[in-house]
Amino acid sequence: MEAESTHFDTGKLVATPTALRALESNDIVDALHRHCQCDWGDLGHGARLFSAYKKYDGPDFWIITEADRSVTTILLPEDY
After folding, report:
1. How far is 13 from 29, CA to CA, in rounded Å?
2. What is the pLDDT of residues 32-69, one digit of tens each?
3. Distance CA 31, CA 56 (A)
4. Is the pTM of this model over 0.70?
5. Which run of H or E residues covers position 73?
6. How far apart are the C-alpha atoms of 44 and 49, rounded to whole Å?
7. How far apart are CA 69 and CA 2, in angstroms?
8. What does the angle CA 37 – CA 32 – CA 14 come to, to the nearest 5 degrees?
9. What is the C-alpha end-to-end distance of the chain, expressed in Å?
10. Quick one: which of 74, 76, 80 has its CA closest to 13?
């Protein structure tokens, strides 16, 4: 199976320790797939790419790609 191409470069992928403890890998992978396909979840404005998702039976979490596309961060709102 070929991986689908993304619509932009994500740069380095990082996650906060809080997000890694609170989220399961499949939640992260599913949300990253959506984020990279320009499905911003509940948000997505400006030069930064900002997505908000909700883990099934768990916390809200965000994915932010910086304007220069150097890094994409997975975090919980309280990490911001």
Report:
1. 12
2. 988 888 887 666 555 788 889 988 888 899 999 898 88
3. 12
4. no
5. strand 71-75
6. 6
7. 23
8. 130
9. 36
10. 74
